[in-house]
Protein 1
Amino acid sequence: MTEHEDFASMLGEYEKQQTATRQPQVGDQVRGKVVSIQGDNVFVDLGGKTEGIIEREELMDADGVLNIKVGDSITSLVSGRDEATGTLLLGTQHAKRMHGSEALQRAYEEQSPVEGHVTGTTKGGLEVEMAGTRAFCPASQIDLGYVEDLQSFVGQRLAFRITKYEMGRHVNLVVSRRALLEEEQRALAAQTRARLEVGAVMQGRVSSLQDYGAFIDLGGIEGLVHVSELAFGRIGHPKELLSVGQEVEVSVLRIEHTDHPRHPEKISLSIRALEKDPWSEVEANFPVGKWVQGKVIRLQPFGAFIELAPGIDGLAHISELVADRRISHPQEVLNLGDRVQVKVLSVDPEKRRIGLSLKTEQAGQVTEEADNTPPVEAYAKPKQGFGTLGDILKESLKKQKDR
């Protein structure tokens, strides 16, 4: 080993040691092993003689059951530090409980999270009590998005960041919960982007429903499942399948980078892509000649579209709707939503087309007597009684002479 290589090796080892001994900062993601569960707190060994504490409530499921035990590994975010013990505060709800104005001023200077008790609403925001001092949280700073009902926060204990601290006769405090949520979101977004690629299958949560699709929170980043990508069947509105807060699995279809600072990418997602394509077995399920039941879903002048199964539609041409007479529009014999028996005439899986007929086998083809269309011969030969063109001219001249 050369002197240069030896130096590079030692430098690399030194950098590893420095990285290993670096104390996590607020917003960093950390992973450690649960070493103790005491009361409302869970203690986590983060390695390197560093310990973290996270509130028991954050690790409970919707039924209030604690899903971890001593020895389990967990991943969380650093939300602050207890200056007295050096213990890291983990999670999104954990914040220091301050005592006195000096502690509040120190928290403002260090920008560390502070726990506050929401005591009421006021014009334009919320009243928050922290360390015996009244603080104000503007409505725009209570959450990431618009909050319609501020009253729902009253009585809760939440983490805030002090954004304004002014001494005087009374301490003037302005706080923000949104600042902490955005910091957490940025950390989550960085983790999500590391896993984000076309074709990736990811877990997400429905954040909002619109007429055109569902927005899915992937972890600090949102993507859109267009209504056409929700399922193989026809969906009128996403709320028919999804609800806000629901956990879903999605596939990444496209990633388009933008110049928007807050939304640097547009992500197209699909739930349908993870389902089995019903057309893959259409010939086996709907063989030619088979009679099946379907529902009328669309009427056009040329025929009726009939849903045979979710994602499987067939077309009954207008000529295949009635056996004993001609009609000018399918709505003369069908209504949207009608349940009908149809016969499979043709199947083309590649073009995703199925030809159907509502005619019964007993009715057969349209008979000549039932067909009101004049036969071809009626157009080729003039009817008796009119004569030829020459006969007509002669009759006209004769009438003129008689006058």
Protein 2
Amino acid sequence: MQQFSVRGRTIAAYVLPTMPLAALGLPLVVYVQPFYITGLGLDQNAVALVLFAARILDIIVDPIIGWLGDSTRTRWGRRRPWIIASVPPFVAGVFLLFIPPQDATINYFAIWIVVSYLAYSVASISHIAWGAELSTVYHERSRIQGWREFAAVAGFLLVLALPVLLETFQPGVTAHDKLALMGWFICIAMPITAAILVSLVPEPPLDASAEKHKLDVGGAIRLIAGNAALRRLLAADLLQGLAPGITGALFIWMVAFYFELPGQSSTLLFIYFVAGLFFIPLWIKLSYRMTKHRTLCVAMIYALCATPLLLLFPKGDFNILAGAFIIYGVTYGAGGFLLRSMMADVVDIDTLATGRERAGLFYSLLVLTNKLGYAASALIVLVLSQIGFDAKLGMANTPEAIQGLAYVFVGFPMLFLLLTILVMWNFPIDKFKQQEIREAIARKRAQAVPDINAIDPS
């Protein structure tokens, strides 16, 4: 049985902000993007390009956020002040993005996407780096990040349940009403969960020697370029963002136009996430028995096999499709927490090499690659335009265009899942390698501390 040092209630308090953060993530692609296109009439290509451009901005911003967090020294810690500072712009951006005026333009969409993404970057990078620093134990890191992913999926479920409940108790509600309810949930949940985090979760103290170092950006770039494990991890995370990003961006249209159940998209998406939520604890336990990277590959192999099966199920039958999306959702969440747990092990390599503790910088790269994956997936609507599919036409699209939508929904994620397996199969850090690295760090730090008994008191 695994022995862990971080208490369950500490982990519970830590993971809570993941729920509102996640509620901005994939639902933004699943609901906000289609609403601005079909509900407000904005050009689908322009919306996709704005989303992509906002993510490209993160290439510059995210590493700076990570560097600033690592460089922060206050009596309240490194991560806590940044979490607190991120809340006001996060709430403002989400409110105006999810509750737009009917005459909102593409410029309005662009401004509040950028504000929301920047605040999200500050909060998520600070939060995930904080979690990586809670433990130095190989499997305990999977436990912490696994429950963080559990909270993220729970956030998805809560925000997706809101439109269903609204439809149940108030028939005839509009898409604008549903989106507004989601926005209110995020805006209320973020300040509450952030307050619990900063009040109850301790920040581990920095090693004394780490305080003496200033971040050498050039040296960090050289180290990243020479770190094979980091390169693999970032490549896998980019691919991980692409596969579910495409699924999310096309989900509503796929259910409405291909499966011919336009009123059931929210319910089927909810079922998909319930399956993912249920299986996350099982993936955590499996990672205790296997290496993290092999557990990731097993999950990706399962998803690779399950994805094309969706096209074999009959259209228009809700019960059968509900079962199909349960099968399809089994691995949702596995990749996210395993990659974040592995990044903590990669950070150990940097700490051993440099003596510095800069989880913020490394996790900013991980957040960046994931967001770039989702951003690139937003451009999938440009592919739809090339095959003749137009979301505004609905069922008036040709059968060939709708079939093309299905092939894109299935084919592109399968490609990215396969590439993830190839990249991560022989990942170089396992439990024993990580223990060796931590022991070497401990020895190095012990040598840096002077022996007070050897000092001449005169």
Protein 3
Amino acid sequence: MVCQHVAQGLFDRKRVGFFWSTEDPENPRPDAWCYGCNERVKTTGGDWVGIALEHLEPKYLCGVCYDLAKSFHSGGNPFV
């Protein structure tokens, strides 16, 4: 799962940053979120509650799209 902003950024071709959970180091595609969501979750002490949860609106991506999102939002150019 990724936040709505990471998913929408693929369509808009707008980089929003890419942060991910380190809770399960064996997971090759952990839950991920954008810079804005990262800033909001800092205000809640790292918990996805309140304003952080309201703006998250998680979306499911397949593995290929997740890898594309991670590359793109991390500064790569996977669209060429």
Protein 4
Amino acid sequence: MAGRFSTTTPRVTRVSRRWVFTTCILLLIGCKPASNDGVALVGATLIDGTGGPALPDAVIVVRRGRIEFVGTHSDFQLPPKTREVNVSGRWIIPGLIDSHAHLAPSTSWARPRYLAWGVTTIRDMHGGIGSLTTLRRKADEAAANGPRVYAAGAMIDGLPATYPDAIGVSAERDARKAVDQLVTAGADFIKVYTRIDAPLLRAIIDEAKAFNLSVSGHLGMTNAVAAARAGIASIEHMTGVAEAAAINSASIVTAHYRGFYPGWTAAERSWGGLDSAALARVAQTLAEAQITIVPTLVLHETLSRLSEPGLMRDQALQDVPKERQQEWDVPGLISRVGWSSADFDAFRQSRSMQDLFLRAFAVAGGRIAVGTDAVSPMLVPGYSEHREMELLVRAGLTPREAIRAATRNGAVLLGADSLGLLAPGNVADLVLLSKDPLNDIRNTRAIEAVMSRGHLMSTDSIRAAW
């Protein structure tokens, strides 16, 4: 069955077109083709992830989980053993990558949510050293209804470690051993946390290089410029930037030593008082060092609004099971941390300066990758990816740049050449949209179907499996 339909037939309404398309996809899923059978998606506008111009009336042929052909409809001949699906009037983008996520074994409910929102790959930032085997087993078991996972395992922290399942170190020798331990466990990259100082960071990066692993940092005791000089690959949440730009960062560093939340609060509050010229200098330095920034603007934005009652009425929360929302316990979190109305005012004031830094970093040629920090409180897996892209555009990126940040840039950070780019030979991960995302970045949410590892699924079928 070809699965073809025309979006130009006058008698076919928008509702019925969607029904026909969904029916075609469901029939396609229901088939059990031979291993060498393929599918051709014909007629959509292709945004391939390179950042270049969109390709109208495009064709993508997928076979055995990989892209076999990309071109225009006018030059296309349907190969043997290939089923055609007419997707005229739609847009195709690469499968999205969440470059900062937390997918612990207890959050397996999040896997299909990611996929329904077009996130086909996640970069898991911490789950304890024993989590690596479990994460990969679950990812293999759920290959057809969940994203692929690249994982750090346990993050490396100074002593006393912030979390009990982190690896705490206090000497350079121990820091190197921690890297070796993670390599043996199968970590895809190394993550350091707030209490790692500059000497420890240098030792960790040096040891990781011996195994061709990159190091990412949620910084605190080390500022962003010092981390860049040490050779860090990515900086998470824009941490360490305020410490590098502040005239006197000693108070922020001291707060980091007292604990995670005191350090986060001090750094987040400090952004509002930073000098724009100093921020521009830090942005230029980090861009020249080829650092990837994973800003997680959606985390900063959400924290700045955490005390607002309307936040709990966000329609996106329908994707989160009620018991998980209760576990977030936002009022309890605010009470435990001790955040006041003055803190939230300061967080909101800081947002414009964070955007300013990010604009300066982008103008200087810096690489930005989309990350969300889901499933932290109020950060909905999958949906938060689209909020992050919207916030990046609000900060000054173009929709095309935001899509690249959510696709190709994430793949570059992972060192995964086959991801984030729709080209022959690459993995067949893509998202089919009913609206033009270059016209309005919020249109990335208009998802009709997702292809993951060559499996084409309607969003309705993914959600029906919850």
